[in-house]
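Bug: C-alpha cell stream looks shifted between consecutive jobs. Job 1:
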Amino acid sequence: MKRRHARACAPKRRGRPPTIRSICALVLRLVRENPSWGYRRVHGELVTLGIKVAPSTIWEIRKQEGIDPAPERASSTWADFLRSQAEALLACDFIETITLDGRRQYILAVIEHATRRVRVLGTPPTRPRTGSPRPSGTW
C-alpha cells in the first residue's frame, strides 16, 4: 500500500520544465540574424516582445546549438554601425538662404544616408502682414 501511494503521489516531471519550442526557435532566429548580439541583448529583445525567459535560458539554448558567444564589442566601429543602419537613418537641417532679390528664405531639408539623396521638405510662405518668411505653425 505504501508503494502504491508513493507511485500515485510522485510528481510526473521533476526539475525545471523545458523551454517551449517556439521560444527556442525565436531565440535561434534572433541569434543567427544578429550575430553580434550576446545573450543579454537577445533577452532584452524578448522582454520587449513580452516573452518571459531568463537570460541563462538563452545562454543554454545557444550552448546546446553550438553557437559561440557574441564576438568582442570593441571590434565593431562607428562606421560599421552607420553602414548597417543606413537604410533607416535620416538627417535633417534648417537652411537659411538669401534669394537674388535680397529676401531671406528658410528651407527644411532631409538627407537619406542610404541613397545620399537630399529632399527639400518645404519652405514657408511669406506672411502677408509682415512679409517675414520665418517658419510659423502654418507650414
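Job 2, same session, no restart:
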Amino acid sequence: MQNLTKTPSFSSRVLLFAAALASSPACFSAAQKEDIPNLVGTWTGENNTYSEQKGNSSWTKTVEIDEQQGRLFKGHFAFAGGTKRFFGVVFPDNASFTWVGADSKGYNHGRIFSKNHVSACYVESGEEATVGCADLVRKKP
C-alpha cells in the first residue's frame, strides 16, 4: 500500500515560510510608520453638542496640536471655561484617533478624512452626560 502522507519538499517549506514572514506585521512597520498622518497644526470648524442640562449648543472650535511623535500627539483647545490640554494617539488604521485630558470626564474619538480634514466627537456619560462633534479643517500646519 502506498504512503499517502507526503512531506513537503524543502522548496515548498521555504516558500511557505517566506509567505508567512511577508505577511507578518514586522514587514510592514516601516511602511506603516511613513503612512501615519501628521496632525500637527491649527484646526478649526463648527462644533455641535447636546446635553440635557444645557440643550443644543453650536460654536466655532479651534484645536491646536502642538507636537506629534509617531502615533502619539498632544495639544490644547479653548472653551468657555478656559483652556484644555490633551494627549492622544492615532490608531494603526491611520484613519482614526482618540484623545483625553487629565481632568476630563469623557473621551474624544476622531476620524481622519484627508490630510486637512478631520472630525472629533466627544462623549461623556453620567450626571453631566454630553455628546458632540466638531468638523475640523486644518488652517495652518
